[in-house]
């Protein structure tokens, strides 16, 4: 049985699609379309006195018009209902809690209801278990955080940086960075967003570096709808 996690705990995974909702067309003059995406996140998690690699799986159904309900049927378990993540009813999602159990590869079938008419789409999960990207340097000075990583050994197709405060709120979400990048600076004028406001001097934060692989065939225009897997490296910093 799949155990689903409350949204707040892993908000970063849902922030991956923030801003995409407004791009969808509300007009009833265009045909209804829905896209389903399943992706896997892995990170080092401390539990029961040890730190282990653990996995979480996120499920999304994106519609270009509001939907009434959305469900997903995994390849080896029972169908379950997704939850609307805001009042537009265009994006429904669910996420499992982190566990040592690797994700299930296979065909995930999404069923949604739009104006009382059912629609189906699917996503085939091929999980390759990419390595964590190695963080080579982290410096904090004059309210600018500089993060460097080893791009030569990274298996990622893109990287993204998040900052999390001690309440578990994701206060910074950076842009998707191409593979040529091996360094990024975070400050109040950086590209990206600060959904919870800027940090204060002395705040203890967690910096997450997300190594991202997209599904085969995705393009720069639709890659955020087609994430395959994420490996999260992290380090604690003090904002100063």
Automatic annotation (TrEMBL):
Key words of the record: Signal
Signal sequence extent: 1-24
Organism lineage: Bacteria, Pseudomonadati, Bacteroidota, Bacteroidia, Marinilabiliales
Organism: Draconibacterium aestuarii
The protein, known as: DUF4843 domain-containing protein
């Amino acid at each position: 049985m799949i155990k689903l996690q409350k949204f707040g705990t892993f908000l970063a995974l849902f922030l991956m699609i923030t801003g995409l909702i407004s791009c969808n067309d509300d007009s009833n003059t265009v045909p209804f379309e829905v896209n389903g995406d399943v992706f896997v996140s892995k990170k080092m998690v401390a539990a029961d006195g040890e730190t282990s690699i653990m996995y979480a799986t996120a499920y999304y159904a994106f519609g270009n018009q509001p939907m009434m309900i959305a469900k997903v049927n995994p390849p080896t378990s029972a169908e379950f209902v997704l939850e609307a993540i805001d009042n537009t009813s265009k994006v429904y999602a669910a996420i499992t809690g982190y566990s040592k159990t690797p994700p299930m590869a296979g065909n995930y079938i999404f069923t949604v209801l739009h104006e009382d008419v059912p629609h189906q789409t699917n996503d085939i999960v091929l999980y390759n278990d990419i390595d964590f990207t190695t963080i080579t340097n982290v410096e904090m000075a004059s309210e600018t955080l500089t993060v460097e990583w080893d791009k030569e050994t990274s298996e990622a197709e893109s990287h993204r940086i998040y900052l999390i405060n001690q309440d578990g709120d994701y206060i910074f979400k950076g842009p998707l960075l191409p593979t040529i990048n091996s360094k990024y600076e975070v400050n109040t004028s950086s590209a990206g967003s600060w959904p919870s406001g800027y940090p204060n001097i002395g705040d203890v934060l967690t910096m997450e570096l997300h190594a991202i692989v997209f599904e085969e065939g995705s393009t720069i225009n639709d890659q955020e709808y087609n994430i395959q897997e994420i490996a999260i490296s992290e380090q604690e910093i003090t904002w100063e």
